[in-house]
């Protein structure tokens, strides 16, 4: 029986540093890497990243959008990249941001979290804006298969506050409510001795004091935080430390373009990942 995702992620972060490298084959990067902007190009791009960095970083985060834009062949390319990451022994968080009514959510859960599904990595990103409870089929299947979910909470983009800072009739902000519901799902595994639960939150490294502003208790979540925004979006050591405070040990910082811009040379990618890992380790483990 595989260990739960939260336990496997904690071990990977302790061993390799709390860095996730995003696999985002933007058209401009494909061009810079001498690859075509088509399904074969995104496949080759992803496989080169896995080849250069597999076993050297805690996790990969392929961005589904850049594969899906090439239709069924692009989705097949994403499946190949996920399989390559698994073969390299590196955890994979598929950044698909799915969310729908519960009955449809069960279909997304089967796609991204079921054993044997070619689109299933180790975890998937989910959107809670149809109601946190609508994600139950995914949370349940993840728990059964030892996988994880990362639920959007305080996203790195400047528009996120319109929804996430909104306050309900109970006086609780949307972000705080998402975090509190994730904490409930993590309570069992943590009381059973797991280092953290497998229900994570996406909290951007760029959000400044948004957690305090929205009354979001990050320290109480006891799950992993996926923190995009490092590198190309401008966040670094200082911003990470400021956003997460006492919760920082559970943070997996994520950088895509900040590392990928150093490719396609594998040594360039490895150097950039090493630099990024040093920076986020200083912020989160210092
Ligand atoms: O709040 C969020 C949630 C997800 N992302 C994703 O992370 C990467 C960021 O890429 P960079 O090149 O490091 O800026 C991208 O796939 C986003 O969709 C995010 O940025 N913010």
UniProtKB/TrEMBL annotation:
Keyword Aminoacyl-tRNA synthetase found: no
Source taxon at top rank: Bacteria
Annotated keywords: Decarboxylase, Lyase, Pyrimidine biosynthesis
Enzyme Commission number(s) from the entry: 4.1.1.23
InterPro entries in the cross-refs: Aldolase_TIM (IPR013785), OMPdecase_AS (IPR018089), OMPdecase_type-2 (IPR011995), OMPdeCOase_dom (IPR001754), RibuloseP-bd_barrel (IPR011060)
Active-site annotation: 97 (proton donor)
Broad EC category: lyase
SMART domains: OMPdecase (SM00934)
Reaction(s) the record says it catalyses: orotidine 5'-phosphate + H(+) = UMP + CO2
Involved pathway(s): Pyrimidine metabolism; UMP biosynthesis via de novo pathway; UMP from orotate: step 2/2
UniProt keyword annotation of RNA-binding present: no
NCBIfam families noted in UniProt: pyrF_sub2
Recorded family membership: Belongs to the OMP decarboxylase family. Type 2 subfamily.
Protein name per UniProt: Orotidine 5'-phosphate decarboxylase
Species of origin: Isoptericola hypogeus
């Amino acid at each position: 029986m595989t260990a739960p995702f939260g336990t496997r992620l904690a071990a990977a972060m302790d061993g390799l540093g709390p860095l996730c490298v995003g696999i985002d084959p933007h058209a401009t990067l494909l061009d810079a890497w001498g690859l075509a902007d088509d399904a074969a190009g995104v496949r080759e791009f992803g496989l080169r990243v896995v080849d250069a960095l597999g076993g050297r970083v805690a996790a990969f985060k392929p961005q589904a959008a850049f594969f899906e834009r090439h239709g069924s062949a692009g989705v097949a390319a994403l499946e190949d990249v996920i399989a390559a990451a698994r073969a390299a022994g590196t955890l994979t968080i598929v950044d698909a941001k799915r969310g729908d009514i519960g009955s449809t959510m069960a279909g997304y859960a089967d796609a991204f979290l079921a054993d044997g599904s070619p689109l299933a990595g180790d975890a998937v990103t989910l959107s809670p804006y149809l109601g946190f409870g609508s994600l139950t089929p995914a949370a349940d299947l993840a728990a059964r298969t030892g996988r994880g979910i990362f639920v959007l909470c305080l996203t790195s983009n400047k528009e996120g506050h319109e929804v996430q800072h909104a306050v309900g009739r109970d006086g609780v902000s949307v972000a705080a409510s998402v975090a509190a519901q994730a904490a409930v799902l993590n309570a069992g595994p943590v009381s059973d001795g797991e280092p953290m639960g497998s229900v994570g939150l996406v909290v951007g490294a760029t959000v400044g004091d948004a957690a305090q502003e929205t009354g979001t208790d990050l320290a109480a979540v006891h799950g992993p935080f996926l923190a995009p925004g490092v590198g190309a979006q401008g966040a670094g050591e200082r911003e990470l430390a400021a956003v997460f405070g006492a919760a920082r040990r559970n943070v997996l910082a994520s950088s895509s373009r900040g590392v990928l811009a150093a490719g396609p040379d594998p040594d360039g990618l490895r150097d950039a990942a090493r630099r990024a890992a040093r920076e986020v380790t200083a912020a989160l483990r210092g």
